[in-house]
Description:
By secondary structure, the chain is mainly α. The chain is about 70% helix and about 5% strand. The longest helix has about 40 residues, at about 25-65. The chain is elongated, with a radius of gyration of 23 Å. The two termini are about 15 Å apart.
Amino acid sequence: MEYITKLEKKVLGWLKDLPHLPLSAKKWLGINLWWIVLIVAVLSVISFFASLNALFTTLTLLNSYLGAYFAVAVATPFTIVKIVIGLAFSAISIALLIAAIKPLKEKSKKGWVLLFVSLLVNAVSVVVLAVLTLNPFTFIMNVLFGAVVIGVGAYILAEVHGQFAHDVKVAKVTKVTKTTKTTKTTKTPTEK
């Protein structure tokens, strides 16, 4: 978890000098981020199942005699490996997005961190899948497009960062009341 916190601070440091959204837009994004993530998660699940269908179709073509003859130029075992790796990254990202919805709705730090980890998984996915294309032009296009998408996501996360309960320290204060002579323990925002 410390590594994620260090990465979070580093990314926020990179983005601090960029122009910021108006406060009303930041507030709106912070309040509505949970349902935006819900929509992205639903679209990602649809995309995941479409890719899974493509994988099964490719496997079916490769397993038939006539289909294998025509499909060899398009679908090789390496193509199947790339699809499976892409599906694995997609499944991890979808799981993180779905797990982030409830904490985001509650404005919890956990939701923001889950979104940040999902962004990191997507960044690794872009690089790995771009390398697996084995084509310099496709590699450059995938990395550029992926960098733009990841950059926009990181910018949005940086803009709403302050609206989630980050680095809140809780203090333990003991109060003695004279009427009941009992000790009450309450938490205040000054102690760890």
